[in-house]
Each structure stands twice: as structure tokens, then as C-alpha cells.
Amino acid sequence: MKTDNTELFAKAPVNKAVISLVVPTVISQLITVIYNMADTFFIGQVGDPNQVAAVSLCMPMFIFLTGVANLFGIGGSSLISRCLGTGDQTRAKSAAAFSIWTSIAVSILYGVLIYVLRPVILTAVGANEDTYDFCGQYIFWTITIGAVPTVLNLELAHLVRAEGNSNQASFGMALGGILNTILDPVLISVLHWEIAGAAIATMVSNLTAALYFVILILKKGKNTVLTFHPKCYRLKMGIAREVLLVGLPSCAMNFMGVISNITINKLMASYSNEAIAGIGIAKKVDMMSFAIATGMSQGVLPLIGYNYSAKNYKRMMSAIKTTFLYSLIIAVASTVFLFTCAGPIVQAFIDDAKTIQYGQLFQRIICITGPCISVTMIVITIFQSVGKKIQPLILSLLRKGGLDIPFMFLMNALLGVNGVVWATPIADFCAMLVSIVLFLPFWKKIFRT
Fold it and tell me: Residue 373 to residues 74, 180, 227, 247: CA-CA distances in angstroms?
């Protein structure tokens, strides 16, 4: 059996293949960012910094769900694309079934734990008497109820993309994003549910997108290696090890991102709720740069993995070069835009002078290393696509947690609130340098093959 896009992976012009896979993925990532920002934007229209701060405080716990989705989605996607490159359909199906059902079990467990331990967790992430109840409402709908649909939405997009169906994967993610953007103003402002309305909108949107992917896979039937059939679920053939170890770096980056966000929120909480709201808005806006880097890298992952397994190294190297070029051009352009338009962008989120003052300064600081993020993310994805485990894990831990958290405390002691924010670009620049050092030996080895 050949999947729909075998020809795209193996024979189409590299430039066309990269664009076909990357453009829809970048668009879907940007739409995801927009609907993630929608919660902050529409809650900001309520004019209550405490509710904006609550969304920021809850975001690390919600981001962890992305880590779970990446663990099984990227790990499964890499293995599936490599199996397709060698023609091993049976192992590809088992990788899909393992990824889907194990992620569902982990999501349910996480949702229950967050609900049971919420008094301890919310206090730990910096919630106070002004934000505690708002945080409780938000995590109930987005995590306790919404964990499984959120993970499935993101994970199934990865797995669908593994067969080259980038357009269909992007449509599913865009569907959820557009629906969330429509529901937010209705539930927040019209029905006056405020932060609870934002949370319900997010949950319903992810559920709708997840159902789209389930229906898509079921309709494809025998024309896809993606399957929900329990008989295909196996722990043998090295499937669990391969999926988990390859997906671990992306999961670790998200997990350390959670710790990083908790740390920055705790440090900001020592200044004011407006500082928390300001950094929350700045980080959400800067997600545009991260979305572009993520879309470029994740979009090309199956193309690199397929050709690496098929030993078509010349085509693989050409795909890497093309992706690097496009990614850097777009990253530089987005950095210029976010830096120059920081004031109007932040002001669009909330009409609070102190929050705007913090937010526009923080945004300008954070966005300057957008191109660095782009380089690091592509290198991480290249290693993941060929089944490497150590290099992407090192880079993921360096970028989030390994460097930025120590720098936060150091820069806070030296420069105060602004110093806390400077830790992020410093860490991103250092991680890029390490990624280049790790990538060059791999590139030279492939070049000599």
C-alpha cells in the first residue's frame, strides 16, 4: 500500500515539496497562535488585569498538554515517516495506534491530577487572592475537561502530516482556531462568562478539531497507516522506545517551558499583577516567531525522515538547505514587525497604562532572537526526523530550563524586572550556538556519504 503523498516525498521537486509541506503547517501554527491570543485579547477587553494575569498563570499547565501531544505526535510522526521510507506498513500502523491510545491515557491522568491538586498547584504558580478563583475556572475547562481533546487535536495533526497530508492537518488545526476566535467574544462579552467563557471556548474548539481528525482517519480506511484499532497497539518491535525517545526532546522543551513560565511568573509576581499581565501578553505575541519556526521545522520533518530512511541523502540535504533559507527570511521579517509595532500590538490587548508600559518593553526584548529560535528548532527537528535522541534532548533542555531559568535569577538580581525578561533572548542565542556546533558534524558525515 502506498500512502497519498509517497510521490511528494520521493520524486517531487524539493522546492515544491518543502513549500507544499511547510506553508500549510506555518499557517496552521499562526492560526493556533491567534486563537491562543484570542483568550488574552477578549479577556483583556473586560478591563480586569487580574483575569489577564490568571490566564498567564494557567498557561504553563496548559502548555504541558502540548508537551504530551509532541511526545507522542512528533515521536510517532518521525517513526511513521521512516517506516514509510523503508516500506514497513505494519510497524507504521503499530506506531500510530501506540501513540494515540497511550496519549489518551496520559491526558486523562493529567487532567485528574490537576483537578485534585489544584489548591497546591495554583498557589505554587503564583496565584493570589485576586487571581485564584479565576485560575480555578480556567484550568477546569481547559485541562480537567479539555486535556484529551487538546492533546488529540495537536497529536493527530502531527500523525496526519507524517504521511504528507499537510493541508488536511492544517485545516483541522485552523478549524479549531477559527471556532475559538468566534466563540470567545460570544461567551466572554455577550454571555458575560468572562474567563470561564474563554476556557469553554478553548475546550469546545479543541474537541471539534479532534473530532475532525478522527473522522478524517476513519474515512481514509485502508488508504492510511493511521489507525485506532486496538489490535495494532503493540509495545514490541521497539515502538514504545522509539516513539518516546524521539518525542522526548519536544516534550522536555514544553515541560521545561512550563517550569520556565512558572519561574518568570513567580518573579514577576514580586513586582505586580500588571507585570504578570504584561509578560503574559508579550509572550503570547512572541509566539508568532515560535509558531513560524515550529511550522517550518515540523512541516519538513516527514520529508527529511522519509528520504533519510530511503538513503536518498542528496534530496534530504537539499530539503534542509531550502527550509533553512525560507525559515530565516521569514523569522527576520517577523522580528522586525514585532519590534517596531510593539506599542500598538500590546495596547490592542488591554486598556491599562501600566500593563501596556510593561508589555511593549517586554515584547521588544523577547522578540529580538526570533531568527535564533528558527535555527535551533530546525536543527532539533532534523535530529528527530532521522531518529537521533541525544542531540535534540540537549538542545531542548538548553533552550528551555537549562539556560533561561538560571539567567532569570541572575538578571533579576542585576537589573530587576527588565533583567528577568532579558534572560529569554540570552538563552535563545546561546542555544543557537550550541545547535550549530552539534549540527555541523552530522552535516559533514551525511555530505561524505
Answer: 18, 27, 34, 19
